[in-house]
């Protein structure tokens, strides 16, 4: 006698199928993805991203107008004292270290790159205060090079949605790059950030009210 399979629960979608569905939800919610950090060019974006480490974009956007009124290019910035830079950026946190990095990298841009922000990962990551995530943001948002910057928010959501095992940000970046089309990486990075802020916070998250988690979150 054959056993009926009608009562079996539906099979959970695989990672690639889940990723495609999540990508469509994000596209429906955020068809436009304005860059959240106020800037005028690759240099001011680089400085804004550096300041955003352990600081909110909102606070950075309040500080950078004052900083860029003082200096908005490598020559003008390197002509300032580290103390003057530090005084302005103090609300962003880690001000001594960030001010020193801003002053030093501005000098390096003048000395080695003719005052321009380099368009390569190795050159960017060689600058003081610039790690892989910061370089990825600049490469993707300033130069349009496909990259998938993974901050703590994207790392958290990728694990929550079962798209990565969440061991570290390097593994999460590799997993996301393997799941999503390369030409979508730059936009998806921002879409996930926007979604996390609106629907999927670290604390006080309501799974049943989240458009993605109610369908695809880990059990």
TrEMBL record:
Residues in HhH-GPD domain copies: 51-198
UniProt GO BP: base-excision repair, AP site formation
Keyword Cell inner membrane tagged: no
Domain of life assignment: Bacteria
Protein family membership: Belongs to the Nth/MutY family.
EC number in record: 4.2.99.18
Name of the protein this chain belongs to: Endonuclease III
Protein task: DNA repair enzyme that has both DNA N-glycosylase activity and AP-lyase activity. The DNA N-glycosylase activity releases various damaged pyrimidines from DNA by cleaving the N-glycosidic bond, leaving an AP (apurinic/apyrimidinic) site. The AP-lyase activity cleaves the phosphodiester bond 3' to the AP site by a beta-elimination, leaving a 3'-terminal unsaturated sugar and a product with a terminal 5'-phosphate.
Cofactor note: Binds 1 [4Fe-4S] cluster.
């Amino acid at each position: 006698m054959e056993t009926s399979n009608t009562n079996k629960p539906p099979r959970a979608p695989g990672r690639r199928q889940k990723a495609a569905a999540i990508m469509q939800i994000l596209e429906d919610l955020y068809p436009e993805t304005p860059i959240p950090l106020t800037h005028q060019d690759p240099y001011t974006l680089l400085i804004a991203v550096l300041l955003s480490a352990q600081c909110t974009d909102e606070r950075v956007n309040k500080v950078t107008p004052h900083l860029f009124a003082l200096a908005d290019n490598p020559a003008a910035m390197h002509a300032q004292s580290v103390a003057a830079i530090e005084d302005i950026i103090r609300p962003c946190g880690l001000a001594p270290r960030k001010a020193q990095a801003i002053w030093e990298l501005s000098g390096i841009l003048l000395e080695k790159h003719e005052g321009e922000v380099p368009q390569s990962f190795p050159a960017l990551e060689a600058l003081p205060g610039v790690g892989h995530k910061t370089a990825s943001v600049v490469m993707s948002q300033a130069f349009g090079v496909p990259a998938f910057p993974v901050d703590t928010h994207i790392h958290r959501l990728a694990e929550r949605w079962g798209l990565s095992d969440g061991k570290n940000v390097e593994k999460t970046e590799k997993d996301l790059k393997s799941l999503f089309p390369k030409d979508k990486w730059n936009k998806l990075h921002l879409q996930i950030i926007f979604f996390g802020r609106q629907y999927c916070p670290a604390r006080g998250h309501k799974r049943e009210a989240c458009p993605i988690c109610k369908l695809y979150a880990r059990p």
